[in-house]
Amino acid sequence: MSSTGSQAQSQSQSQSQGSHSLAFRVMRLCKPSFHVDPPLRLDLSDLIAGEDIFDDPIAASNLTPLLDRHVANPTDSSDLSYRTRFLLHDSSDPMGLSSLLVLPQSFGAIYLGETFCSYISINNSSNFEVKDVIIKAEIQTERQRLLLLDTSKSPVESIRAGGRYDFIVEHDVKELGPHTLVCTALYNDGEGERKYLPQFFKFMVANPLSVRTKVRVVKETTYLEACIENHTKSNLFMDQVDFEPAQHWSATILQANEHHPHSNSQTRDTFKPPILIRSGGGIHNYLYQLKLSSHGSTQMKVEGSNILGKLQITWRTNLGEPGRLQTQQILGTPITRKDIELHVLEVPSVINLERSFSLHLKLTNHTDRELGPFEVSLLYDGLHEEKVVMINGLQTMAHCSINDLPFWILSIGKHSSEYANELYHRLQHLVSQTSIWTSLLLNLEFRESPALQCSTQERRNLITLCQTWRFSWIWTNLLASFA
Amino acid sequence: MASDPDPEPQSDPQTPTITDPLTNEFATLNDLTHDLDSLHELATRGSWRSILDKVARARALSFLRKPHEHLTYLAFHVIALSKLRRFAEASAELDTLDDLDAAHYLYQTYPNIYPTRSGSMVPFSLRWLHALLPIKLGKRQLGLDRFYALLDFVRSKLELKDGISGNIWKKREGFVINSIIGHHLTNKEFSVCLNLIQFLLSSDPSNPILISKLGYIQMQIGDLESAKSSFNRVESMVETESEVELKNLVNRNKAMVYMVGKDYVSAVREYEECIERDPMDVVAINNKAICLMYLRDLPDSIKVLESALERVPTVALNETLVVNLCSMYELAYVNHSDIKRTLSNWIARVAPDDFDSSCTRI
User: Fold this and answer.
1) Hey, of B69, B168, B340, which one would you mutate to test binding to chain A, going by the most A CBs within 10 A of its CB?
2) Which chain A residues in 403-432 lie under 8 Å from chain B, judged by CB atoms?
3) Where is the region Disordered (chain B) (predicted)?
4) Residue A50 and residue B119: Cβ atoms within 8 Å?
5) What's the gap between Cα A286 and its chain centre?
6) Which residue of chain B has the CA closest to A69?
7) Low-confidence winner among A189-203, A315-329, A342-356, A469-483 (lowest mean pLDDT)
8) Contact A92 B207 (CB under 8 A)
9) Mean pLDDT of B296-322
10) Quick check: A357 pLDDT over 80?
11) Which of B256, B309, B258, B301 is nearest to B280 (CA)?
12) Strand, helix or coil at A461?
């Protein structure tokens, strides 16, 4: 009973002319492995004497030289025994990792992103020389037929009886599903007949990984969580997992700092714990922080689907055998278009009671139409005083009460031509409504703009008004609402 | 059977020694235990079946007088059965012993035989086999649990011992840990292996062989950068006056780096340097053959292995090398059963009893 070893399933078809002088032998040449086998080898002292015999000083001093005379020395060429199969030589021998390499013993599994490498040997098992051999090797998949080797331009002149012609082919696996390695030979046999030998070796390509992503947006930052799951039969060493952001995006990977009990400065270089994903369902998570590198002025944000980028994954298995895959484009959540943005520009770090302070806000209108009015109100608990909020660029005023606490809302509009007058009347009205003298902090900008054109007389009236009344505002919570 | 004549042991004024050869119980192995010299000789030749016969005979004819002799013979018996892959019988034999910590396995229980000695007379290998055998019988978890328990046992002994005895127990701790690493490695439990090797290195940081093995594990995982850095560490430890073994280690490590980079020509060159320095470096020989194959040179790779078997059979004859050679035969010959049978017949004549001939896949 002969086993197929590492040969793929072979189905050879011969022509009606009969048997062939040539035959293909194929062996998958993935990387070899280190042979691991904890050996049945001992230290002589653990076999021929009791474990506590060395507590006896007489025994200890006499036994040691006796044992030394029988120690295993593998480089002694005069020793023709199998001593090294019985006795240990180095303290690490019990590990069974001698660095002896062993050839792949079975075809194994092959995955998308890996490289298929095969040794192909064509043998002449007949008693006659064959001539003008044209050899071809191709990979046939569901979608295409790829040529790996073709000696048509320079055919092998002859293969003698019992001789052989060898070659090694490589193919980056980029498709899933059934693949066939098709080896064909066109040759003149011993009788001068032109013969054609095709041989087929089938194998299946499976998917090694699946990647699940989650996108979360927190304020200005988008977080991308990628979970890689290993569907292969080996542990995968994640050599490189890089997120390639799309245009206008920048990405940084977020990693936890791990502390290891045994690492010290001496060992830290050789001991960086590798990212290893366990075979058959193991997972590893990656977290990326993405920011839109937006340019200040050109603001119009693209609505709809939002391409963030893609993941490039390189893994390695046995002895560094590489595999490479790229994900599809990863989509983020569509950016919700905000018509209006409110930013707090400046707020004092210390606020004193009964002293007014100013709060700088920036209100940006992203649309191309007029929006308003902008209302600012106070959320209040506890105090029963009337409070007022005053805003630069006063436009309208409204009165409302929350929890039966009267307070005034003054709101801003745009370009009111009766700006100053309006202000005057509003303030008068306000003052007549209140019963408490408070100080008024007017943060009015009398700029040279149409909205604020007022006569000198009006201006003087306003200033008098300001000096007469003093309003103070105590801010606790500022609640801004806008349409 | 007369024991071999032996020169008088050197007497060192510092350590107490017995200078009278007539009462020296450590002059030769036979003085320690009945016919131990022969048992040892058979073991080094791999004649495990003969050992089974010998043990049976000694027991039947009551050659064994002292308690420790029974234990030594039992240990050889269990090992022989294990070597012959008769693990169930080995386990049964081991079970005939009671609890290994029982009083009748202590020296002080027999003061007239061992007047100056106290402690356990159980050979440590029996404890090790007690942990190993379940793994060989397919009960991996039980075996591993026993190994970890054995490690605790060794560590508790280490706390009480010092001097020569302390060193021996320290060596045993390493023995057990290395065995554990080996069993985790077989199951590809790489993270545990890395942690355990780090532990070993913390008390033995300049051990080039151990660091090389760390490198091999890193390479097996696929972490090539870490492997290279481990090998660089080893290279920095070796100088021109270093032993051949160490120099070859550096060359073989370099060859592995070339190999994973697919530079098989340079790898072959490194291995040839090793073989020139030490013609019995079977790892270099085997790995060189593999590189030749990846260089599309199947005929030469076969030649390298065949000539090694012919030239240095006692070192070259190992199951891995034979597996590789048979794989090469299967690729090279359409009718490979003939050539494999020739190999198999030669092995049957030359190999030790414990050689696993299923590796020829005939």
Assistant:
1) B168
2) none
3) 1-20
4) yes
5) 5
6) B28
7) A469-483
8) yes
9) 95
10) no
11) B309
12) helix
